[in-house]
Design a protein that fits this description.
Length: 162
């Protein structure tokens, strides 16, 4: 695994067929599933008992993402790393092989990795914090804006929320 100047390990990987078989689209519609092409995921190893997998996407139409600005593809598409489609992985059989991403986007990813990791963790921690609040303290509209289409709702057990 690659090391960066802050304390985390990361890889860019594909998810395995086992993952997609265990999380079929009809039961888990918010998870980005393999179709005609595989999605690359930025995998962060955490100090907890799980990995965080955040997908690279070529079309993102919301603010819960890091949008690439420098790559050729980003000039015509809103490509980036989509925090809202983050997946929590405990079973390492769900992680397949190393993925290859656009060279320009990979460079920008590395140049901004600290920000991307920080924002990924902020998104995850915001979700966990909201679910731990009492009903009277919850801002339901803000939650809907940020988490309505999140895939995190399928990983409460992995996050210790059940």
């Amino acid at each position: 695994m690659a090391r960066n100047k802050i304390d985390f390990d990361y890889q860019i990987m594909l998810l395995s067929d086992k993952f997609f078989n265990d999380y079929p689209k009809d039961k888990y519609p918010e998870i980005i599933l393999k179709g005609k092409r595989a999605f690359s995921f930025f995998i962060i190893e955490t100090k907890y008992d799980y990995y965080i997998a955040v997908p690279f996407r070529s079309q993102i139409s919301h603010k819960n993402a890091y949008l690439f600005k420098e790559s050729r593809r980003s000039k015509s598409n809103k490509s980036g790393i989509d925090y809202s489609k983050m997946i929590i992985i405990r079973n390492t059989e769900y992680i397949d092989k190393e993925a290859h991403v656009d060279k320009d986007e990979f460079k920008e990813f590395l140049d901004n990795i600290d920000e991307i990791v920080d924002k990924s963790l902020q998104y995850l921690n915001g979700y966990i914090k909201y679910l731990s609040l009492s009903d009277s303290d919850k801002d339901k509209r803000k939650f809907e804006r940020n988490y309505r289409y999140t895939s995190l709702k399928y990983f409460h057990k992995e996050l210790g929320l059940e």
